[in-house]
Amino acid sequence: VGTWVKEQGRAFLKPDDIRVTDWVALKSWPAHGKEGQKAVAQITHWPNEAGSLQGAVTEILGFPNEPGVDMASVIHKYQWPTSFTKGALSETHALPENPRESDWEGRLDLRQTPILTIDGVDAKDFDDAISLEKTPAGNWRLGVHIADVSHYVKEGSGLDTDAQARSTSVYLADRVLPMIPHELSDGLCSLRELVPRLTMSAFLEYSPSGELLKTDFAQSVIQSFRRGTYNEVQQVLDRTASPEVQAKYAALEPMLRDMLTLSLMIRKNREASGALDFDFPEVRVVLDAKGNPIDVRKTERLGTHKLIEDFMVAANEAVATFLSQSHTPAMYRIHEPPDLKDLEEISSLLQAYRIPYEKKDLTTPMGLRHLMDSVKGHPLEPVIAILSLRSLKLAVYSSNNAGHFGLALKSYCHFTSPIRRYPDLVVHRALKKTLEKKAKGDIHHYEKLAQHCSLQERQAEKAERESQRIKQLKFMEDKVGQTFTGLVRHMTAHGVYVDLEPYGLEGFVPIENLTDDQYQFDEKAMVLRGKLGSFVRYGERMKTKVQSVDTALQRLTLSKIYG
After folding, report:
1. pTM score over 0.85
2. Which of 56, 228, 339, 470 could in theory staple to 118 by disulfide, Cβ–Cβ 3.0 to 4.6 A?
3. What pLDDT digit, counting tens, does each position of 505-558 carry?
4. How many Å separate Cα 268 from the centre of its chain?
């Protein structure tokens, strides 16, 4: 992906990716194309002694400022499919709009059980629902009900082939590229209010003190009583809801309050085992109807976000434990502990700023959790949280149940989002085979598939971050010359990275834009040290001015303001 430029009468594509330093020489340009447009080129000749990088234009995207061109560039850069194959579409069109009564024959019928979904206000694909009841023995029986996508997406089908190739949905700043067609993701598999839906249910029974006593699993049919939203349910729990919102949840309020009580106990037990929770606010861009950025907001996690997370993590762990104990080949979500070399940066900061710690303790969940608890309220808390997170290895999928360091769990998998993650679909199939006592899958197949899903997940995350960054930078284009205060969260020999308030956007202050002194990075002391005695330290608040915004290079350049 790049921009068409002319030089000495010849046509070139200037690549967007700064790692590709050669321009792509084009033999021809489509007759309807114009200089300055973004386009996609297929490489026809790689540079060697016999010639330069050459290619042919396969698609013209349009001028950079035209609506949708920025996101189309991201999609093409990561080569993400935007349409489904004929086989997948024909299979989709053959499915009913809603489940038929014959579809839930033999399933556990939960249509009369009070069940609800809780999601964001803009959500369309509802793949998880929850219920809670008291048992005659006085225990809690939590139900986590997940859309049974595997009932419709059969192994080896056209839908399955397309879903496996993608392995995840991609949530760009202005659109969703779904793993399965919208008719399924937003329709037949989405747990909509007051319509029957096929589900896989996990039942977790807890003692009154929150101790997990036993688990059960079933193929089921539910009918969600209410399409809840995080904000509304939070208002009900806080007793700040309007009369309309209060009336909407009146019948479910006692259950919601019990859910809050149980989730707090589950979370307390998880934290006691060392589970990590960095609780960073998410920075999201707000777009108008034309896709133009009109605001950038930090979205804080509410208690209801944590409640749903507590229940989903518990269900994921329960399914993983059951599959592991059943010796069922499956796909696990694993997170390996950090090595000592991974901890160099965070260790250097703690040592330089005289914050007590034991390096070996940081290789255990409990040790890292104790560190985060010890710096609560400290000016460096957000910086330490960021560096701690960066010290951790990436979580991946694997056929080997190696445990999850960050959650401090021996067994973990992804079960709760089969609409948007292929590993969850694989886990559903493995769970069904175990419950039905059918032949189990091949572990070698699962390992190959796990590697593919891990790779696709990384690509999707990069595309999502880039789409947000591009829109966020466009939001800042008319703010050149304006001043912002921000937190110094990282530094190198080349300059300082600052999180700008109130948006949480990262900007860079090159070292030459620190004009009150001549600075050098003191790696041992973790400061920028000036020859005249000035310092720039981690965690300090710096007043800056926006100097330039470069969406092509995805760079927000700042200068420090003095006085």
Report:
1. yes
2. 228
3. 999 999 999 999 999 999 899 999 999 999 999 999 999 999 999 988 889 999
4. 24
